[in-house]
User: Fold these one by one.
Assistant:
Number 1:
Amino acid sequence: MQAQLSATNLACRRGDRLLFRKLSFVLRTGEALHLTGANGTGKTTLIRALAGLTTPFAGEVARTGGIGLLDERPALDPDLPLGKALGFWQRVDGCSDPSAALAVLGLEPLLEVPVRYLSTGQRKRAGLAALLGRGVPVWLLDEPLSGLDVAAIGQVTALIQTHVSGGGIALIASHQALAIEGLRSLALEDFAPREEPA
Amino acid sequence: MIAALLRRDLSKFFPFAGGGAALPVVFFVAVAMLYPFAVGPDANMLSRTGGGVVWIAALLAAILPLEKLVSQDIELGTFDQLRLRGVTEEVMMAVRLLAHWFSFGPPLMLATFPAAALLALDGPTLHLLLLGLLAGTPGLAAIGLMIAALTASLRAGAALSGLMLIPLALPILIFGAGALARQDAASIGFVAAISLLLVAIAPFAAGAAIRAAREV
């Protein structure tokens, strides 16, 4: 089964405000899309609608294949040590050998540290490890590089590249430039509704 | 997957196990301990009114765990991640209901033994009390879960949920404590019926509340 993610004439709003409309794209296997836009243009809203967590105001989202989401909340219990917090998701996903993902992301020394003591970047990497453990074809990444140091940015970019080259799909919302082959770009500002005259 | 979820929820909420809070049980015993100090050590009076006090203590203890019951996992994004893995909100809430009841129902029933000793309750009263709590605590847990899910995205949710639980829990209290006054187990059947209804509704109501909380 080929993974695919597409949006047709999508419109989303937050509260009473229309964020974007007439947004359409198709992502097939092996493709990556860089979502750009200033703060408040609706990147997170779009990602949540694509993930199926919220219902778009108008238009349709079509998904084939499992969806993985990485946002600013890694869904790890703050009171548990990182190893146990990740262990819960490994049991849910039936992931047998998470050590490869942990080694790549440099998380092995942190497994005994409670999640609440981790830094933003470390938490982001932990969320990515949970995502890697799922083995799903479609990645929705909301600001995957924020809070990461230079070395980690390289690692994470390489991981996304590997995922895409291996036939995965990645949609990345980021303010930073991404060094990924064949990366398409989509600016949300282009789909913002025209300002109504005051 | 369900087993992993239940295991996590239990380790999160069960008293004395990991992150679970023992506060409801301590609170429950504390009320039973303070009551004789407040009304005097007249054993007759204590055994006549003590059962009702235990019921009130149980009802108030049911409010204490509500603050963290649902809102923390919404903030952490746990429910979103589970949704992406194909777990429906109803299943999440059914598991949570089970874990919530296990974490406060049986511990309260165990704590009823020292409470009964402090309040000079006799054997038949203790028997009715335990039976009533067994029938009533699932209902209290279900009300608590629905309220916690509904108020999860509100800023003053914790304070509000306490106020909302009290009137909704009244039928359970009336029939549960009523059995003690008449020394008759018949009205516990009503408590069980109310609990059954609430337990059946709760996963759907709470699940819908979580979905609604996503739509800003």
Number 2:
Amino acid sequence: MKATPGNGFAPWLPDDGPAAATGLAWFDSRRAKARAQVRDQGIPTTKHEAWRYTSLTRLLEQGFTPTAEATTPLQPRDLEPLLVPGLDAYRVVLVNGRFIPGLSDLQHLPAGVRVGGLAQILKSDPDALKDRLNGVVGESQPLFAALNTAGLDDGVVVLLERGAQLERPIELIHLSVGMDEPRVAQPRHIVVLEAGAQASLIERYVSLGEALYCTNSVLELSLGRDAVLKHQRIQTESANAFHIAGLYLSLGAGSRYQCVTVGLGAAWARTDLNVRFAGEHAECDLQGLYLAGDRQLMDFHLDVDHRLPQCSSRENFKGILYGKGRAVFDGRVYVAKDAQRTDAAMSNRNLLLSEGAEVDTKPQLEINADDVKCSHGTTVGQIEPEQLFYLRSRGLSAPLARRMLCLGFAGEILDCLTPDALRDQVAEQVGSRLELAPID
Amino acid sequence: MSASTAVEAIVESEYEHGFITEIESDTFLPGLDEGVVRAISARKGEPEFLLEYRLRAFRHWQTLATPRWAHVHYPEIDYQAISYFSAPKSQDGPKSLDEIDPALRETYNKLGIPIEEQMALSGIAVDAVFDSVSVATTFRTKLAEAGVIFCAISEAVHDYPDLIKQHLGSVVPHTDNFYAALNAAVFSDGTFVYVPKGVRCPMELSTYFRINARNTGQFERTLIVAEAGSHVSYLEGCTAPMRDENQLHAAVVELIAMDDAEIKYSTVQNWYPGDAQGRGGIYNFVTKRGDCRGARSKISWTQVETGSAITWKYPSCLLRGDDSVGEFYSVAVTKGRQQADTGTKMIHLGRNTRSTIVSKGISAGEGQQTYRGLVRIAAKAQGARNHTQCDSLLIGDRCAANTFPYIEVKNPSAQMEHEATTSKISDDQLFYCRSRGLTTEDSVSMIVNGFCKQVFNQLPMEFAVEAQKLLSISLEGAVG
């Protein structure tokens, strides 16, 4: 799609005058290039395949502008209500997209593990990021990745050296608070696990109050040979929030990656998961759960690129739609010509609980090799009347029975969450949302 | 000559008849403008309303761009280099069977096609004393008794102008897509079927028996209307490789089913797929759509697609009537350099509408195959049901199979399931058959036929037998 007059994303871009230059030649030229890409792509419409079911009108109407503040008056105790009770983790806190060391807890990181703010590293040791920034995203960036590159303010860099292992998970909290006007934050995270490293990363997107804001985050992740990462993403943002996340993954030979992503909050949420296999025998497991009620849109796009032989991928996404909630699932599994012995299975199941709810799903397979095992399955349905009858005949009220059955449906994904403290909190959040849902 | 070498000979031999572009006195010069559209209409002596329709379509077509979204690749088509009208009887065909490629005759014999049919298929002028013609005449008498109209659309325009006026373009409007617009502007001829209220058509209708339907040209138009409570089964195409002079085919098929009516539409398509480099094969760009207008109506599409260099077709059902049913059963084979982008659309609008999609794709050699389907359940389609199954079988490591389903559900009482698998013939299955004394080729043929059985079961009996043979022949030599 070509640009329509008056590019709606222009306000997201920082000025490209000399004042904006950081003095880092490679960084400035990448930003200039990204700006050009944003302009060239214009505003995608629903005629654009990747945006077929998701209109950007609502996002553009908000008139988001970048935020300038790099500090926050918040104190560590202000965070307490937002924490997961009993979760023992290294904590990295971003407020409106900026890394706040004062709220973070990174003591006792073992040797071989480095965690720091992206903006700060760009100042102190910029060349460390030269090959990393956009290293996984690549040259041709989709619109929101290009916007992020052009306008990135901060983010987190996590580096595990060869063989480093973390006992406790790293918890990355994206906290957003309301500001004077609708603001967009564009954090960029870079996570690198060198050969044999193992870690667990918990990303949580939370907000204070019913703030209206937009987050456009990009996470670039590369796993070296035999590295193992468990990545959990819990999005419980305010009902007015706009959430855009792009995950770009490069999986080395024999590496194992599991992602459990749960989307509950935000008015408008779009998540793109891009998986590239960079070595043979790598495994990728993507589990997802989403709930959408009135005025909510949950949009997940998966792009799994089996360009090398002998890799396996699992994609299992489940959704519960109620009120006037909408969900979009677009999953693509691509198997290149010589990627023999690929094993890929994609599944998307949806419960549609009320009039006005809608789901648009598009699971795609593109197979160019013959010795493969690939499948996908999709269902859209309701709670089985027999199951409901069974529970009601045992004395449960209809709403309670429905909620139990929905929780059972979600349980398959919730059970992938670890540790139990996290699982319990998310299950409770799912339960309380279902309690308020008009699903009769 | 063993079976496989015979087929290899077919596969490797150049198709001798090619596409003859000799200009006869009765063929229009290449090019397309309003004058050509008027001339086609004048030549056929069409009434004013049809000329108007053609002109509207042509003007709209001029505003359209060639669609690019399908997963197929071919050189740009020059629509001004095509001749849009050719007299029905061309004299450039071979004079006797001796002039026919022996390999092609071998195929005919394997399919068990009688000698007269062989001549007709290879474009030899068939004398009217042959059995098929007398059969056709008998059929026409029987149909007339039942009140069923079955004739060329150009005849129907004169004999039943009201029916044509009422129904033509009512399911696939001329604004529908690029090829539908082109077809509406320049359609050569086609078939019209009208089954009156409560009539069960006494036999399977087939263009095969409509002798004057031969060489209907590249822009065929089919219109089938089934009035309330009627039933009709229509067979299109044939299993034998059909000789054809036109490379671009843009047909339109419209089906209309009123209350309680049922239309079963079966297609076997085996047009010239091009040479080993994929040169010269037929481009088959077809728009097929059925409209279940009445309550409890049913439209069922069954297709076996083995020919054409490029296939681009999505037989669809508009399920408007309450309790109406749509079905799509498809087997598509791509081998050599063939490309197919095919599937269906099931649009659920009425209450308790049901649809079933079963698509089996077989890709061999460097074949490219895509299933593209849409299931849309509108907000008012209470109690709608859909079940979709698309399986792909890959033979050889240079072929491709893609699955692009689109599923849009806006009603909470809808039940929708979609499943797709892609795999190759497993070594275990092959070993099992071989250990029981079957050759590799027979084993493959047996496994593939099993893979397609669900679809073949939907075909009318005689078609099903032919289709099975056709499939075996298509795939012979494809397995190393």
